Amino acid sequence: MLKRYFPILGWARDYTRATFEADMIAAVIVTIMLIPQSLAYSQLAGLPPELGLYASVIPLLIYAVLGTSRPLAMGPVAVISLMTATAIGDLALRGTPQYTTAAIALAFLSGVMLLVMGVLRLGFITSFLSHPVISGVISATGLLIAGGQIKHFLGVKAPSDTLPEIADGLWRNIGQTNAASVVISILAVAFLYWARRGLKPVLIHRGLAPRLADILVRAAPVVAVAVTVILAWALRLDKHGVAVVGTIPRGMPAPTLPPFDPGLWKQLFMPALLISIIGYVETISVAQTLAAKKRQRIDPDQELIALGGSNIAAAVSGAFPITGGFARSVVNFEAGAATPAAGAYTAVGVALATFTITPALYFLPQATLAATIFVSVLTLVDLGAIRSVFTYSKSEGLAMIATMAITLIYGVTDGIAAGVLLSIGLQLWRSSRPHVAELGQVPGTEHFRNILRHRVETAPGILSLRIDESLWFPNARYIEELIYDRIAEDTSIKHVVLNCPAINHIDASALEALEEVNAQLRDAGVRMHLSEVKGPVMDRLTRSDLLTQLTGQIYLTHYDALATLAPKMTRDTLEQSRCETHR
Amino acid sequence: MLKRYFPILGWARDYTRATFEADMIAAVIVTIMLIPQSLAYSQLAGLPPELGLYASVIPLLIYAVLGTSRPLAMGPVAVISLMTATAIGDLALRGTPQYTTAAIALAFLSGVMLLVMGVLRLGFITSFLSHPVISGVISATGLLIAGGQIKHFLGVKAPSDTLPEIADGLWRNIGQTNAASVVISILAVAFLYWARRGLKPVLIHRGLAPRLADILVRAAPVVAVAVTVILAWALRLDKHGVAVVGTIPRGMPAPTLPPFDPGLWKQLFMPALLISIIGYVETISVAQTLAAKKRQRIDPDQELIALGGSNIAAAVSGAFPITGGFARSVVNFEAGAATPAAGAYTAVGVALATFTITPALYFLPQATLAATIFVSVLTLVDLGAIRSVFTYSKSEGLAMIATMAITLIYGVTDGIAAGVLLSIGLQLWRSSRPHVAELGQVPGTEHFRNILRHRVETAPGILSLRIDESLWFPNARYIEELIYDRIAEDTSIKHVVLNCPAINHIDASALEALEEVNAQLRDAGVRMHLSEVKGPVMDRLTRSDLLTQLTGQIYLTHYDALATLAPKMTRDTLEQSRCETHR
User: Fold this and answer.
1) What is the pLDDT of residues B443-470, one digit of tens each?
2) In chain B, which residues have their Cβ closer than 8 Å to the Cβ of A475?
3) What is the per-residue pLDDT across B318-352, written as a single tens digit (0 to 9) for each?
4) Locate the STAS domain: which residues (chains A, B) (predicted)?
5) Which end of chain A is more exposed for a tag (fewer CB within 10 A), N or C?
6) Which fold has domain B436-580?
7) Cα(A516)–Cα(A518) distance, rounded to whole angstroms?
8) Domain residue limits, chain B
9) How high is the ipTM of this complex?
10) Cα–Cα distance for residue pair A135/A407, rounded to 1 Å
11) From CA B116, how far away is CA B308, in angstroms rounded?
């Protein structure tokens, strides 16, 4: 029991020197990757850069105690940082203490929500975000974040939460462009892009193992940071209008209590919920993918608790909402992290950095951070996914495009809400008009197939229908009307046989409809039969009146039904040579 | 084409003297039933009684031209009248001209919505009201309406839209109780109740045909009206504090234009939509039931247009929203109505009544109308339905009780909204945790069944799973986790075969999950196979990358899959004596 809520009690017992070494190597690599990221995502959230570092210490220790994923690397991520900026940007001005307080409250609220969801085992809620919705929102957010960096490249200030805001902000402020910022930005973006695309093949060509090359490439942002810091310091670029990070307090802050302000909490409720859900989806996706590669297991409900605990820790550290980062976790995994202890060592590394390197970061140009954000978020944008979803299903493709458009124009919250409603509406609509096949017997066999697709034999006076959908309220009336229409069209029908192998569930509305159909058919002199009803469906039907009222029989197979109702035709068809048939 | 929108062009050509006589007889009976109903439901809507008569003339003529149901009897009904009272009670005081104007606007708006829905063929929207929701809302509304009549029985004035209001209103006003009103109420309720329950057996015993007895019993309210009018006139009860209907203008009103007031329309939008949907559900249910009895067909989309046209006509007549009444239509059907012309003759009957009997209605006690409403709405309350839904499905039963409770406490609008959300949520939740069976071969057969329910043989290293649900976003991750868990538990597994006969649809999220499962299994050294994939599902999968990436094969039958992957075991099991098996 204790082990379920504190997975560390499980893996810590088997901790060996070899595991320690593997975890340490991974931790060093992730620390190098995490420091520029945490500064950058803090800037993206509109917060002082040191908060990104604070978000990367205690929360990582908490995750090491509570988490069930071995390679998951907790910390600030792009999408959650943008959602944070949007949520608190409505409540307070950037740079004010209220803004930071709101961010802390958001992390705390989101942490509590995740914790509660974990204890109540509500992780399944996230499954209501369909793949096209998540993919659409993430791609659109990537575009928004990338677009939002342009102001830093130009060295101007402008709001940038949505596409219209970005466009308007750039239009108004383009006159204030700072040439030095633009130069730094172009160089940094070009370097980072080349490191991602061009450096790896070179390293591999030089004889490095592809895995090692991949890890080294991830250190490129540190190089960009170091070079531009030196450049800015040597040329005193801060005197030439280049925005720099400025003074960062040294060391770790004292723990803070999140503000007790019910009014603020109420305003932050919906953003916190969405941040919790999106953060959890990101965490669980990467945790599951990496666990499956090694046939390990994660506990989705415990992951909610671990993520909740980490966010509460982020709030106590005076920081903003965080989650498990995809790219960072993959690097951790590839670098050989064997247990969650790797995350704890990373935390120690970041904590050390707050004491040592912070003075050097004074001259770090904001444009450099913008460049690292720009290059890394472009990988979030997956426009190919639209094409592949669209190819597979036009309606889902359109829903995805709508989700993206709404996210770009109105922001992430509205985008997610619209996407979820569209996904559910689409499925209800599809389910409300199920595929129904009229069946006939395939000559020479006991099989019954769609009369429109196959050459089959039907018996006069008997209507065989196969409904390819569970029966429930959105399609109950449709099925009812369909049967009435068929028997009104052909008054010779005396038997209706519903073939039910594809019916996984019958709800109370559909039961009512079936009882009504049975009664109406009885009045019209037609008997209703069922065939191939599944076990669980049958279990439930025995608790209803349908079986006692049914004018016909329930047959184990559709062949049994026809063999009883039209024995001669069925036998003759069965005896026809098999070579006449085609499927 | 013209015939589709004007069904009268179809049936009027075959109109004979015999049809005319049948329609006339039905029309006389329905007119006698409709006059007290229209006065009563107008009072229920909080409107002057003559508006009920106006609502029963031109709208009925319009329905005769546009409707496709032969026995449907249009006019004021209880539930819609209560919804009207609630909707406009929020906007204006009863008895003011604004109140009547709002009712007219509501009828107009609802008519336009129905018309638009009909032209766009959106009738399927109503299928999203599940049976437990409709049944719960109707029962709760019946209770609310019955409870709302108590104030008329006591002869006091009080608001009565929700249960708390009714309780509070009676508590405050019980001191003003009028003894004469109470006596009239008790007598009228007792008489009407006896007519329903006791009179019919007596009439049948006297030798009347049951159908005729049934129709005669429906005339009881007219008797109650006549007797209490004479009583009130003879004893001048209006001078003794008994509320009477008072002066009713003679004849029909001039046509009015509905108010052009965008502010009012905006406020009435949601109520009008719900009135449209509930009204349509009531109309279509009775129309379909009665049509099916004679193997006739109705056109659900044209019914929307007909109901819309009738409501616009109600607005032009200065009246309130109407729909097809259940009890009235059944009487019309039983009385032999052969075409929609019966409705037109009823309209003429009501129009004649507005010129002839209105002066006599001056002394009609409101308590009498309340008694006719009370006795007739009690048939709406079907508490047995809760029990039967609950027996069939606990979760749907609870959803129904919640819908009823919310309707009673907060009103019909909130009740419907909560009910729809609960129904959809329930199905999503159910669908998110589908039944998945691990399969084994039934000895002596080619059948594969659940290893937990049947004595079956399984092949080592092969996991056979049958998923009893379409694969879509609410269950995509659940299935993914389930497979990962299984292969993590048993590392000897080398093949996973998904048996797909119950999968009616695979959406883009589930496709993504299957591709992910396939890739993860590949990395873990496990091959994934599919068996018995349905035609329409396969058609769609061929447009995806899954089939090219799939590490295993797609087999026509599950037996084929196992015969290929574990030929010896499959053959040996097949050859075992059939007498060893049990299903």
Assistant:
1) 887 778 889 888 888 999 999 999 999 9
2) 127
3) 999 999 988 899 889 988 899 999 999 999 999 99
4) 452-565
5) N
6) Transcription Regulator spoIIAA (3.30.750)
7) 5
8) 17-387, 436-580
9) 0.78
10) 12
11) 8
